[in-house]
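In this section we walk through a basic example: taking a raw amino acid sequence and producing a predicted 3D structure, encoded as discrete structure tokens. The instruction is simple. Fold the sequence below.
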Amino acid sequence: MIAVNDGSWTPVRKDFVEPGTRCRQQVGRGRHHGFGNGQAFILRDGQGHEYPFGEACARAVLAEPDLLYLVPDYTERDAGQPVPEATAPDNEEFEAAGPAAPRARGAARGGRQGKASDAALRRTAAIRYLVLRMEKVASVPRVQPTVRFPALEAVYQSYLETGELPDAQVKRILAIERSATTPPKLKTINLLDVYTAHVKLERVIQESNRVEQRRFLRSIHDWLARHLVLSAAQIAAAGIQMHPHAFRSLLLREAVPAADAAKGEKGGKGDMEAKGEKGAKGGKG
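The resulting token sequence is shown next.
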């Protein structure tokens, strides 16, 4: 059974989880369900430990269930995967959470109106951008150094230590994200695409048992890290499912032809041509 709400849990974020991850709560006949789409809500207990939860299970243990939709969502740009059918031997249960953005707006408006609602959403957006730049994307192997922004280092460390983000810093972070001087590749939407592609590429690399295929996938991952963009051909060749508009910002179009030049990835000699990267000549990144 799902544990009774004791008010000790705090929602932290919605994020990707490793294949095979189980929900913290028990359902049905004492089993812990899995996450069919590889996404979970992360909750923190009273001792500071974080655990993955399905949406229904998370709502059941939270003192204020609607706060679940006010956490940063790092899975927003995932195209989503179909929920797998229950396996024959164990009849396992899976939970797939739906889009949280509309409910986030509803949750914010469900409490205090006006400024308080807007402030909650702005804080969530600022935290997500801060963590994307300073942690999620910055930790991608061989990622370009412009991702991690020295001007945000102090506020990021403070956020890690306290979990708080003062209003002044919320305004500052959002101003950086929206600034005309911030390259399109370092805006929230593109960083979410990069993070999502990174997670999916790492999964297919781990699942591949062919050396040549792993080398080929690594070359695509390296390109992503260096250029913060993938072409439609690269996405298709890697066999990953992305948001229909992934990396398709109008301001990023000039980068797409360059991304097609993945033939220059020396580690995957000849592989791109075999996977349909036509006309890619000599781009070396």
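Looking at the output, two observations stand out. Confidence is low (pLDDT under 50) at residues 81-102, 253-285. The radius of gyration is 20 Å. In the next section we compare this with other chains.
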